[in-house]
UniProtKB/TrEMBL annotation:
Entry keywords, A to Z: Oxidoreductase
Alphabetical list of Pfam families matching this protein: ADH_N_2, ADH_zinc_N
One example GO MF annotation: oxidoreductase activity, acting on the CH-CH group of donors, NAD or NADP as acceptor
Domain of life: Bacteria
Record lineage: Bacteria, Bacillati, Actinomycetota, Actinomycetes, Streptosporangiales
The protein's name in its UniProt record: NADP-dependent oxidoreductase
Domain called Enoyl reductase (ER): residue spans: 16-330
CDD domains on file: PGDH
InterPro entries listed in its UniProt record: ADH-like_C, ADH_N_2, ER, GroES-like_sf, MDR_fam, NAD(P)-bd_dom_sf
């Protein structure tokens, strides 16, 4: 085992969107776990867009701290236990999920390591946002048989599994938005979508009205902005909305990534009895049928796997630019 570990640090706060030059891959001595900590060799970590918000100063009331220059980035990771305290129940070679990604080795408090079983064909699939999509579409904006569901950002890490999940929950029609015709074609052929609306191909409200002539019953919003406005205009009476993300403003080069202003017609919320709520978070448990779908292949984990920690800053840049379909994962 090496006596060093590499990690990715923020070296400068950008004026606008973060680019690879705002980060550095540095070599540090191997972390020495304190009492009660597990030494983990990371194998995969998830690259997620909310890092832009944390670099921009963070958001009060959310569980993640802001990132300052010289801070090491973090995020969900799957790693292999190197050593663990006897009381932890973990053993060398076990796979665990934790939140100290963006480094090759991590010393993680034992209570923050969640054991990962071997029932999924690809361990990286434990980084899927399927639990988030499932919670959003069963608890926050429940899908009912025959519903028409609209997912904004339908080709992203959440949207790429949300469309599939809505279909498995009994939706009658599933519509997703994206930024390119190439992704739109793959969303229909691979991800369970019946139709798409494409940003830049015409007014979103007109495209959505054409794709859902009878209106929408459920909206899972990853984007905000004009797509939220269009969903309100197209909603059927009693529609359920869950706000998961705000990528339109979060990844805007002209904003800090910490605010997402949008003007909506609240009269429409009243007249249509629209239920709108923010995503309620994860409780740490996984639905048994969700794992069953992943094991059977009914639910896939679309993702781009970028090899090597040296490429991690590039991976974030490509995520922000929308280059990939699905999640972005760095493999170590």
């Amino acid at each position: 085992m090496s006596s060093f570990s590499r990690e990715v640090r923020l070296i400068a706060v950008p004026d606008g969107l973060p680019r690879p030059e705002h980060f550095a891959v540095v070599q540090e001595p191997m972390p020495v776990p304190d009492e009660g900590q597990v030494l983990v060799r990371n194998r995969f970590f998830h690259v997620f867009p909310a890092l832009r918000t944390l670099i921009g100063g963070g958001l009060k009331g959310t569980p993640f701290p802001p990132l300052r220059p010289e801070d090491t980035l973090f995020g969900a990771a799957i790693g292999e236990v190197v050593s663990a305290p006897p009381s932890s129940g973990l053993h060398p070679g076990d796979l665990v999920k934790h939140w100290l990604g963006w480094r090759e080795y991590a010393a993680v408090p034992a209570e923050q390591c969640a054991p990962v079983d071997g029932t999924l064909p690809d361990p990286a699939a434990h980084l899927s946002q399927a639990p988030l999509a499932y919670a959003a579409l069963t608890r926050d904006a429940p899908v009912r048989p025959g519903d028409t569901v609209f997912v904004s950002g339908g080709a992203g890490s959440v949207g790429s599994v949300a469309g599939q999940t809505a279909r498995l929950l009994g939706a009658g029609r599933v519509i997703g938005s994206t930024g390119s015709s190439g992704k739109a074609e793959r969303m229909v052929s691979e991800l369970g979508y019946d139709a798409t609306v494409i940003r830049g191909a015409g007014p979103i409200d007109e495209q959505l009205a054409k794709a859902a002539p009878d209106g929408i019953d459920v909206f899972l919003d990853n984007v905000g902005g004009e797509q939220l406005q269009a969903a309100i205009a197209t909603a059927r009476p009693g529609a359920r909305f869950v706000i998961v993300g705000t990528l339109a403003k979060q990844l805007s080069p002209d904003l800090s990534g910490t605010t997402s202003p949008v003007e909506i017609d609240t009269f429409q919320l009243i007249a249509k009895h629209i239920e709108m709520r923010g995503f309620g978070g994860l409780d740490g448990t996984r639905a048994e049928r969700l794992d069953g779908w992943l094991r059977s292949g009914d639910l896939t984990f679309p993702h781009a796997r970028i090899p090597g920690i040296d490429q991690a800053p590039r991976a974030l840049d490509e995520l922000i630019s929308g280059r990939h379909l699905g999640a972005v994962v760095v493999g170590l």
